[in-house]
Amino acid sequence: MSITQNLVQLKASLPENVKLVAVSKFHPVEALKEAYNAGQRVFGESRAQELTAKQKVLPGDIEWHFIGPLQSNKVKDIAPFIYMIHSVDSLKLLEEINKQAAKHKRIIRVLLEIHVAEEDTKHGFTPDECKELLNSKAPFNMENICICGIMGMATNTDDAEQVRKEFHMLHNLFSEIKETYFKDNRDFAELSMGMSHDYPIAIEENSTIIRVGTSIFGEREY
User: Fold this and answer.
1) Where are the beta strands (DSSP E) in 9-118?
2) Per-residue pLDDT tens for 112-127?
């Protein structure tokens, strides 16, 4: 099936309240153009250099999401145009995003990345570290960021119950943080979880943003 067919089929299966981020990392500009021509406007990249190169040559109405580990020194490259950064995993990174956003007179949307998977390779705050950060009040003094929710990845396993348990934990944490720190804040509304292999479970567990690459573009071209 073509990228267009994959997209049409996938979008038809999604609830209205779920945003699809087409994960285009390692795929050529031509592949993104085909997805764009099929109506997709939200794309996710995980390397600042690749993202800025693509952003320069693709249409200006694309909503770019940064979804991978982000080094503080790369924030300046994406700050002029990035719509949302999903992978905030430290106070230092939050401060740098705020600083670079201020330079461009922008407010950048961010998600706090939470580590729930049983894998050391995944990044993110533990649930307790996330609450400590919010208790410190430091993020609430940053005028050029908007904390819109949390992001997380489940363990890469065929055990659907394990995956569901982790997504369920993320949703419970989202609800707790919303109630405790963002009760009257309408911006705090996003739970980014679910990828090509597990997004149906993520949606059942109340994900609002899914990050899907392989099911749209096929296997990556390295």
Assistant:
1) 19-23, 42-45, 63-66, 84-88, 108-115
2) 999 999 877 778 999 9
Separation of alpha carbons 187 and 185, rounded Å: 5
Question: Could you tell me how far CA 75 lies from the centroid of its own chain?
Answer: 15
CATH number (domain holding residue 179): 3.20.20.10
In a domain, 222, yes or no: no
Query: Which uninterrupted H or E stretch holds 146?
Result: strand 145-153
Residue with tokens 């690459």: 213
What are the tens digits of pLDDT across the range 40-60?
999 999 999 999 999 999 999
For residue 101, what are the domain limits?
A: 3-217
In the chain, the number of structural domains is 1
Torsion angles phi and psi, residue 75, rounded to 5: -60, -40
Please state the pTM of the whole predicted model.
0.96
Tell me the C-alpha distance between 25 and 196, whole Å. 14
74, 100 contact by CB (below 8 A): no
Average pLDDT, the chain: 96
